Amino acid sequence: MRPLPSRSRKNGGISLGLFALCLAAARCLQSQGVSLYIPQSAINATVEEDILLSVEYSCHGVPTIEWRYTSNWGVQKIVEWKPGTQANISQSHKDRVCTFDNGSIQLFSVGVRDSGYYVITVTESLGSSQFGTIVLHVSEILYEDLHFVAVFLAFLTAVAAMLISLMWVCNKCAYKFQRKRRHKLKESTTEEIELQDVEC
Where does the pLDDT of residue 51 fall: very low under 50, low under 70, confident under 90, or very high at 90 and above? Predict the structure, then answer.
């Protein structure tokens, strides 16, 4: 007959199993590396507007964040920084970019030339990285549109003025008509009184 395993052996096996499970979970978390979330992947804007290119990331340690801009004019580096440190902003975007620790950037006073693809790359110190893209479309406010709006407003103002004038004329006519009617009623009652006096 085999002896029953002791309690200490059983507890040792459980502890070893838990340790192996924790080690596997830690490795799994490390293999995930960087995760990146972009709430709005396409942004429409007009000239002179301030735009927020919003992102959220999570990783182990302090990553390096880099934004690049791709358009018909080529690829251009905008900014690179580590959260909590000074941002290295390119000469083309000096005084036009504001960085945030969550990886987001804000572009000030955008123009049509700023339309294009904005690519963010978040690189962990261990080497794993993740990238995402935001498409920005900047459109001009066309003067023809403004002209149309101005003409339409002038038309509405003219119609409103005509309606107010018409109401004023109608009111005057109604007042004159009522006055004339009262005058006629007054005359007829005066005539009746005079006839009664004559009859008497």
Answer: very high
